[in-house]
Design a protein that fits this description.
Largest interface: A-B, 64 and 64 residues
Mean pLDDT of chain A: 97
Order of helices and strands of chain A: EHEEEEEHHEHEEEEHHHH
CATH architecture of chain A: 3-Layer(aba) Sandwich
Shape of chain A: globular
Low-confidence stretches of chain A: none
Oligomer: homodimer
CATH topology of chain A: Rossmann fold
Strand content of chain A: 15-25%
CATH superfamily of chain A: Class I glutamine amidotransferase (GATase) domain
Number of strands of chain A: 11
Distance between the termini of chain A: 37 Å
């Protein structure tokens, strides 16, 4: 049995986990776990709640440990219960992975020292605070660390991981089953393609939430130093 | 307030709804509802459960009605409670939409007669049983019906709908925020690109579930004839 566990925390960007979970759930012999401190429904960033399937205490040793991101990520950076769970699972996991700014939580747990990692573009520059090496790609692999970029990169990440776990032929079946032949309506999915004006507008809109998060990143980086 | 409601039914392919819900939840003044018969958690195809936010009885008039798909779709085709809810909401909704084979449920409710519609490629040929005109595109619009193709097409659909609801500039911001610059690992996301062998293998794997569904499609088509 391949145990694939996603950390499910309050205000997670739910697509960070629901994208790759969709793909990985169809890998033969795979079982997807959503792991949190207890089994109460966890409110996602979209407003609806998802029910954890297991807890930190009851979770079996995972084959794949995955930390998704979102604005709620910041509250996990200094949560010793969460960080201990990640470190404990990470020791035995075959793959230690993340999507979006979930890589910062792995970093805060001290699990990305001198590892290359992906991250959401707007959060990528914080990776070095945790000793990690940011890479501007959709999917990044460094030894047993595999990471996806921002949000929708979780689907590319999920397929890459499916190929790793079950072979390329299986991953191709899944890409066909999920009709993954994307046609983005615009060509602005990276800051480079979007251009300075769009990037500036988004940064301005999100500035208050980044300021809050930055304080917590700072605190976590100092604690780990 | 823009009320965007997704039908949340057992064994839904959860990415069909979690993809577009992610995007549409960030449209200004939008509120995402997950609607089901009661408020108990609903088990998705991945195994984990999502909690409905409202019920058929309590749901406000939706601006956007959206039916996702999945193998669980087949049980909805002959469920008069579900179909009545869709018809009632469809009368007042500004947009009547679907992702994946959710279009078959709209069809069974009699809501796609002489409308062009998208559908998951493997289910597309059933659309004419409900008087709908299948179109092999990621996002299809016909009057106020907007539909997405299979599973991951829900993201393209979500961005197209965001542009419709809030303008192109807003949709571009969202595409950047969700870093939607896809890089599929393989080039096999449609049956044409995947080729006959891969398509045949997937059809063979899924044949038992399709046979079950076909009987229910047949029943619904006869009931609506």
């Amino acid at each position: 049995m391949i145990h694939i566990g996603f950390l499910l925390f309050p205000k997670v960007t739910q697509l960070d986990l629901t994208g790759p979970a969709q793909i990985l759930s169809r890998v033969p012999d795979a079982r997807v776990h959503l792991v949190w401190k207890d089994l109460q429904p966890v409110e996602t960033d979209v407003g609806f709640s998802i029910v954890p399937t297991t807890t930190f205490d009851d979770c079996p040793q995972l084959t794949v440990l995955c930390v998704p991101g979102g604005f709620g990520m910041a509250q996990q950076l200094n949560d010793e219960t969460t960080l201990s769970f990640l470190r404990r699972q990470g020791e035995g996991a075959k793959y230690v992975t993340s999507v979006c700014n979930g890589s910062l939580v792995l970093g805060a747990a001290g699990m990305l020292q001198r590892y290359k990692s992906a991250c959401h573009w707007a959060w990528r520059d914080y990776l070095p605070r945790f000793g990690a090496v940011p890479v501007a790609e959709r999917v990044v692999r460094d030894r047993n660390r595999i990471s996806g970029g921002g949000v929708t990169a979780g689907i590319d990440f999920g397929l890459a991981l499916a190929a790793e776990l079950a072979g390329e032929a299986q991953a191709k079946l899944l890409q066909l089953a999920f009709e993954y032949d994307p046609k983005p309506p615009f060509d602005c999915g990276t800051p480079e393609k979007a251009g300075g004006e769009l990037v500036a507008r988004l940064r301005e809109l999100q500035a208050p939430r980044f300021r809050q998060a930055e304080a917590l990143i700072e605190q976590a980086a100092l604690a780990g130093a």
